[in-house]
Amino acid sequence: RFESQTGEQAVKIKHQLSSTENCREYILMGWESIPYEISAVHFNEMIAPLVGQTIDACHRILKSADLSVKDLSAVFMVGGTSRVPLVREMVQRFAGDVPVYSSVDLELAVAMGAVMGGGSREEEDEGEKWLQLGNKYYNSDSVEGNPEIAIEYYKKAAELGNITAQKILGHYYETYFNLPGHTSESLKWYRKAAEQGDAEVQYMLGFAYYHGDRVTRNYRVAAKWFRKAAEQGDAAAQDKLGFCYYYGLGVPQDYEEAVKWYRKAAEQGNMIAQNKLGVCYETGHGVLQDYEEAAKWYEKAGNEEKKISVLKKVRR
């Protein structure tokens, strides 16, 4: 429910900032509503890297296929996101002098999406429809609130491949894991979401198999799911995969590979990985021993004691 709420708030903020310089929304936390303010400038700073990455990916695909923007009729389905001036500007810069189509009309966007994506869009929309119905009935504060009906709608959405619904069902059955059959039902839906590429759930599955949480502990399976999430940039999964390589849990022991994944997580600000990278530099596992580099990573991790300790070795 929190995920659904924040998603709705994000859409509201996007729409408001398309015509105003500042936006104020409230996020429900328990019994209180927490105010959240954001400016159009800050919002643009947040989304610019993501939009840039998306456009860059499109550029690489076109280049690898030896196509041009014109070859694709220059149709960029920005959909609702085209409300944001920054997005329109960045897409237009990419397209150059080729006209770019964008729409704020939801029905038109869906229709165009169906034309561009074949029949898959229809199934996605059907799943989204059941998801929204589930959200409506799951809200127990409303007159129509009925969690049992909501779960049935979520199942319909999940069976059509809706990742959000699959995650909701996984969490629902996880909450009631002490009831017969619910553990396997929870894992079933989490696994479906993970197999569709959801990095968050991939990490959760890895964590479950690593710790033997409601499943038989299996380091090999844990490492498999950690890798899938890590390759998508999940810092926590990168740290865990590095740990698996460091100790040879589910994968062959490989200090250099451990350092590689620790570094990826550490560079994203993961303090646990930063500390482990400091250990690697201090011990010379997977890298050339370097006390000053170790001290640098200990400092980033907030481990002042280890930083002081390793710097004493430099002065000897």
UniProtKB/TrEMBL annotation:
Name the record gives this protein: Chaperone protein DnaK
PROSITE patterns: HSP70_3 (PS01036)
Annotated family: Belongs to the heat shock protein 70 family.
Entry keyword set: ATP-binding, Chaperone, Nucleotide-binding, Stress response
InterPro entries hit by this protein: ATPase_NBD, Heat_shock_70_CS, Hsp_70_fam, Sel1-like, Sel1_AlgK, TPR-like_helical_dom_sf
Function statement: Acts as a chaperone.
Coiled coil: none
Top-level taxon of origin: Bacteria
One GO molecular-function entry: ATP binding
